[in-house]
Design a protein that fits this description.
alpha+beta; eight-stranded antiparallel sheet; 3 helices; about 20% helix; globular
Length: about 150
C-alpha cells in the first residue's frame, strides 16, 4: 500500500468497515479480462476468520467461472464524502474501503438456511423471518477470506 498513513491494520476495524458496506464486488478470473460482479453479502467474523456469504439464482456466468477457478478478489467501500477546497482549487474524496481475496465455494444445501440468515443480518439487524421455501431454489456461496487490507481517508 503506497499510503501507509491511510491503512487500517486492526482486523476489528476492518470488519467494522465491512459492516457499514451494502455491496461487495467480486472479481472472477475470466480468460481475457476479470469479470466483476456487485453482490449483496453477509459477514461472519469468528475466531479471527472473516467469512462472506453471497446468494444468487441457480445459473449464470459467475457459476461457470467459479467451476473453472474458485480464486476471487473482492472490494467494498463506504462513507463517501466529497471534500472541496475552493481556495486551493482542489477536491478529494473521503472514504473507507476493504479489498481482499480468497476461494469461493458453493454452500451445501444443509448449510444454506444458516448462511442466508447471516446474509440477512447485514441488511436487517433484527432477525428477519424470510420464507424458507426460497432456500431450496437459492444458490449460496461462501468466501473464507485469505488476505485482506483496509484503507481510510
Amino acid at each position: 500500500m503506497r499510503r501507509s498513513d491511510r491503512e487500517i491494520t486492526d482486523r476489528n476495524e476492518i470488519v467494522q468497515v465491512m459492516e457499514q458496506c451494502d455491496v461487495c464486488r467480486l472479481a472472477f478470473n475470466d480468460e481475457e479480462v476479470p469479470y466483476i460482479l456487485p453482490l449483496n453479502f453477509g459477514l461472519q467474523y469468528e475466531n479471527g476468520i472473516i467469512t462472506l456469504y453471497f446468494h444468487g439464482a441457480a445459473e449464470g456466468t459467475k457459476y461457470q467461472l467459479l467451476r473453472r477457478d474458485n480464486r476471487v478478489s473482492f472490494e467494498m467501500d463506504c462513507s463517501h464524502q466529497l471534500v472541496m477546497d475552493e481556495e486551493k482549487g482542489s477536491c478529494t474524496m473521503k472514504y473507507k474501503s476493504v479489498i481482499g481475496r480468497g476461494r469461493l465455494e458453493i454452500v451445501p444445501e444443509e448449510e444454506r438456511y444458516s448462511a442466508l440468515c447471516i446474509l440477512m443480518k447485514q441488511y436487517h439487524k433484527e432477525d428477519f423471518a424470510f420464507d424458507r421455501a426460497v432456500v431450496s431454489r437459492t444458490t449460496v456461496m461462501k468466501l473464507v477470506v485469505e488476505k485482506i487490507t483496509g484503507k481510510e481517508r
